[in-house]
């Protein structure tokens, strides 16, 4: 039995599951695989590499996909939005910054505007900007985010804006998470870390192995891996990563790291190129602890739906 929610109806998809637009990991192939499985794949526009983006859309073939940008970065390079909109994405997602300057262009192009937020104040800002769908991202999430948890942020936004289509993100990696998100008032889920460990993922194979081996205890929110790449993230955001030698060396010494960049910069760039994840960061969420295999994305979607149905059926037997 499929789940029919406001999300599936608004986007015209079969299952209420979105692939998070993850920088590099969510490439055209992975986005297409999620869309073909009945969800919606969002290509990761990330930090805004035009050449990468030009390849990502054709790589999705005939699949109906969307795209997502890091908003503060898009503001530095706004013509990238035209590049993405030229491919007629089903949806355009903005995260981490004020969506207002871009909202009209996105909607005029016929794309559904999705805004990912980390606080209630940001949800208000997104609604005022004209968001069609809000993604409430909890701190459990992999990659960049803030400090509110999925468990409280989702119902608070659901109560505040009962008419907005709401998606939960952060910590959802199986059908239990999908069922929980629906119980909290969401219309669906946006999934990142679980799809990093999909067969079609664009993430480096060595990084995917780290996900399979890690516990949620092994992840930490930090600025270390932004400093190490000269990424100047706005205050309030940190990246959730799997701890490694580099984080052990610099956690709590971020200012000293910033002063040591002449030495660290080339070594860090080399580590990323070589797939050396003792030094390079693996962005991943607390859900790593429940991810133990690398199936095709379509199988992840199918499993998530079947498990959510089983979870809800089991819960129904408890209510006697
Ligand atoms: C490897 C990785 C890269 C990410 N890159 C981006 C990004 O470029 N833009 C963005 O909006 N979110 C990014 N995110 C965050 C996701 O949008 C999403 O909120 C998160 O993955 C959801 O939590 P989960 O990882 O527990 O599923 C990234 C997440 C991961 C794991």
Task: Give the SSE layout.
Elements: H1 6-11, E1 17-19, H2 28-36, E2 40-46, H3 50-59, E3 66-70, H4 71-74, H5 79-85, E4 91-95, H6 100-108, E5 112-117, H7 120-129, E6 133-137, E7 143-145, H8 150-160, E8 165-169, H9 175-183, E9 188-191, H10 193-196, H11 205-213, E10 219-222, H12 224-227, E11 238-242, H13 245-250, H14 254-259, H15 261-274, H16 297-318
Parallel strand pairs: 1-2, 1-9, 2-3, 3-4, 4-5, 5-6, 6-8, 8-9
Antiparallel strand pairs: 7-11, 10-11
The structure holds flavin mononucleotide.
Report on the structure:
This protein is α/β, with parallel strands linked by helices and 320 residues long. It has 16 helices and 11 strands. 44% of the residues lie in helices and 16% in strands. The protein has an 8-stranded parallel β-barrel with strand order 1-2-3-4-5-6-8-9, surrounded by 6 helices. It has a 3-stranded antiparallel β-sheet with strand order 7-11-10. The protein is globular.
Short description:
By secondary structure, the protein is α/β, with parallel strands linked by helices. It is built from 16 helices and eleven strands.
